[in-house]
Amino acid sequence: MVTFYIVRHGQTLLNQLDRAQGWADAPLTASGEQAAKELGKSLSSVVFQAAYTSDTYRAFHTARLMLEEHGHPDIPIHQDARLREWCLGVMEAEQNTIFIKRVSEWLGGVSFSEMNKRLPEVATAIKQNDTTGMAETFEQISKRLKELLISVGSAYPDGSNILVVTHAFLIKTILYLFHYAGIGSTSQIRNTDSFRLFYDNQTFKTE
User: Domain span at residue 38?
Assistant: First the structure.
C-alpha cells in the first residue's frame, strides 16, 4: 500500500488578504513559511520516497520548506499541473466573502457546508459564469487528479510514503471522490492542514 500525505500549502499573501486563489499565485507569508517548517518537523519520523506538488510557487515552496525542516532536502520534488487548484475564472483574487456569496446565489442560496456536498455543481456554476474560458468542469478536474494519483501510486512499491502539496478545492475534490461521508463535516481546509490517503493499487481510502 502506498500512503499519500496530502497537504494544503502554507498561507499566502492572497490568503492573508482573504481573497480567492485558484490559478492565481502568490508568495507565502512569513507565517506560511513557519507553518510549513513546523509541519515538516512534525513529520520527521516519516520516510518519504518523493514529493509532488502543483506547478504553483506556493505549493513548491511549501514542500521545499517542509523537506528542509524534515531533514531530507534532497528528496526530489516533482511539479505537476494535474495537482493545480481549480481555476476560479472571473472570481480569481476576488474577496472570499463575495466569491462565496456569488457561488451560493448561482446554486440557489445554499450554505457553505452544502457547497462541499455539491462540488460538481459548484464547478459547473463557476464555469458557466466564467468569461475567461479557463474554468474546468468537475469531470475534467477529477480526471486529471485521479490520473496523477494512480500514476504516482503505481510507480512506487508497497510501503512508500509520498508527500503531496496542493490546494483547498483540490483537497475537497479528493474527499468528495474517496471519502464523501466526511465531506459534509469539512467546513474549511486550512493552510497546512494534512491527512493521509491510501492506495492499494486498486482503490483509494482515507483515514
Answer: 2-19+28-85+136-206
Dihedral sign computed on CA atoms, order 140, 50, 165, 161: positive
Q: Tally Cβ neighbours within 10 Å of residue 107.
A: 16
Strand partners, 4: 162, 197
The band of 54, judged by pLDDT with boundaries at 50, 70 and 90, is: very high
Confidence of residue 153 (pLDDT cuts 50, 70, 90): very high
User: Which pTM does this prediction carry?
Assistant: 0.96
Report CA Rg, the chain.
16
CB 202 within 8 A of CB 11: no
Per residue in 177-187, is it b (16+ CB within 10 Å) or e — as a string? bbbeeebeebe
pLDDT for residue 65: 98
Count the domains in the chain: 1
Q: Is residue 194 part of a domain?
A: yes
pLDDT of residue 64: 98
94 secondary structure, DSSP code = -
Which of 114-137 are b and which e, b meaning 16 or more Cβ less than 10 Å from the residue's Cβ? ebbebbebbbbbbbeebeeeebbe
